[in-house]
Write a structure and sequence with these properties.
Helices cover 37% and strands 21% of the residues. The longest helix has 19 residues. The protein is an alpha+beta fold and 174 residues long. It is elongated and about 70 Å long.
Length: 174
């Protein structure tokens, strides 16, 4: 009950045999779910969860997936088959999924810009470039990523960037 990950054990008859408090908090389980059919314990359970449980039981393989049942949040679920049923390990993945969506949105925006945009790590190694950089410079993305920024910027620009980086470090900024 003190685990930060939800746990449910569903027996071979698809009945809830055990559930921890974290799972009850993550989901909208009906009161006293133990002994009830898993599909009837939570109105938000989607068909994919049931299908994954059945597949794990049938194939005896671990299943991992993410799901968003009925706007109840985003969950990462791991279904682990055992001798007498399956264990479901459920964690809230809302933050991770929202971050991934935001990252994809940002990547789409950067790719549509006509201006060249690239990112560097603290050692001034190129970590990413948008399509405009490759078009402007004639270099392939593979040539640029992992290379030193001197491929794209002159000494004066790199010196200025170094000064800005030092200022950020001295202010305690990320």
């Amino acid at each position: 009950d003190r685990a930060d990950i939800g746990f449910v054990f569903v027996d071979g008859e698809s009945t809830v045999a055990a559930v921890n408090r974290t799972m009850e908090e993550l989901s909208e389980f009906r009161p006293d779910p133990v002994g009830r059919p898993f599909a009837a314990t939570n109105p938000g359970i989607d068909g994919r969860v049931i299908d994954e449980i059945e597949d794990a039981m049938r194939t005896e393989t671990v299943r991992e997936f993410e799901t968003t049942p009925d706007d109840d949040g985003d969950f990462r679920i791991r279904v682990v088959p055992g001798d007498d049923g399956v264990a479901l390990y459920v964690e809230d993945a809302s933050d991770r999924i929202a971050l991934r969506r935001e990252l994809k949105r940002s990547e789409r925006i950067l790719e549509t810009l006509d201006d060249g945009v690239y990112t560097l790590d603290e050692a001034f190694v190129i970590t990413s470039v948008n399509e405009a950089v490759t078009r402007i410079t004639g270099y392939d993305r593979e040539e640029l990523v992992g290379s030193h920024a001197s491929m794209l910027a002159g000494d004066e620009t790199l010196s200025m960037a170094d000064e800005i980086l030092e200022q950020l470090r001295s202010n305690g900024s990320d």
